[in-house]
Amino acid sequence: MAATRRMRAFKRWMKCQGIECSVALNLTIATEAPQSISVSVKALCDLQVGDVVARIPKQSCLTVKTSGAHELIEESQLGGYLGLSVAIMYEKSLGPKSPWFQYLQLLPPIEPIPLLWSLPEIDFLLSWHRTSQVFGSIVRQIIKEDKALVYEDWKECIEPLLGSALLELNPEFFSVQEYFAARSLISSRSFEIDKYHGFGMVPLADLFNHKTAAEDVHFTAISSHSESDNDADNDNSDIDDAIDGDDEPIAQDSHSEKDGFSGGDMESSLTSEDDPRVLEMIMIKDVKAGAEVFNTYGSLGNAALLHRYGFTELDNPFDIVNIDLELVLQWSSSLFSCRHSRRRLSLWRKLDLFWMW
User: Fold this and answer.
1) Which one is predicted more confidently, 32 or 165?
2) Where is this region: Disordered (predicted)?
3) pLDDT value at residue 339
4) Is the domain defined by 2-323 classed in CATH 3.40.50.1970?
5) Which distant-in-sequence residues (6+ apart) come within 8 Å of 103 by Cβ?
6) Which of 82, 89, 118, 332 is the most buried (most CB within 10 A)?
7) Percent above pLDDT 90 for the chain
């Protein structure tokens, strides 16, 4: 099967890149589509808190700094998601000549986040939010604004790159559709690596599926004092914070070395627990053999999960229901005095219970 061949190629690629994956992990093909596969990570034996199940050299990550287009990106002063999008599109354009070809072959062409929905799909698919028409309207408006801003980014920053003298770019891989596709992969799969690399695509780490408030494994970046202190720009908006809160920050801890890896012979400098060039996946819960090993995108409600990643969860403990303030005031005024209602309103404001007036 094509999916099995791509998985085998990816595992060989990881070994060549010095990526260590514990033999206790099984990368399982969950579903197969014509052009991509869905992967889950399961435990082959019991895993315990503190086990290091993966080590990933930063140089194997696809970032602005590691991409072959880094000079063009830096000359164009494209930071954050813009720069990383160019890096992804450029590496895709190289095909088998890209150092990340086997990794990119394992990824889906796009992630089905609302950003890639058509305007009629946005209106129709987000009309399900019966508990709050105001909330549904706000989310629809946010996504439509996102689409307009992303298109504007492509028009102003990406399309002009096709005339660059630094690299001969294939227009087919830098179209607005390809830019939206790259942005969807970044939104769903990227990690913040460190100040030097900024955001990037982290092979193997991005195969762990999400589970809200129930992560088994944690992605950590060992603190580096030797790398550049220049902050990488990023164009994160405050929209997701308004919808449902922040992602968890990356831990900056080092952990003890564990046995049981299948990443091949590596230089001792890359397996050192104090090496700032290495990312680690650490177990923070015990997981029984046969169970899936989950990561987390943070303590997010379904609105933020849908907006950022294109899915929701049943029984999400961080889900919220937004109710129009006018409806609340009408209900309160029908049962209580105006003075009582005003006092309640004042208290709610002090408790910061309102989102968006």
Assistant:
1) 165
2) 223-272
3) 84
4) no
5) 10, 13, 62, 201, 203
6) 82
7) 47
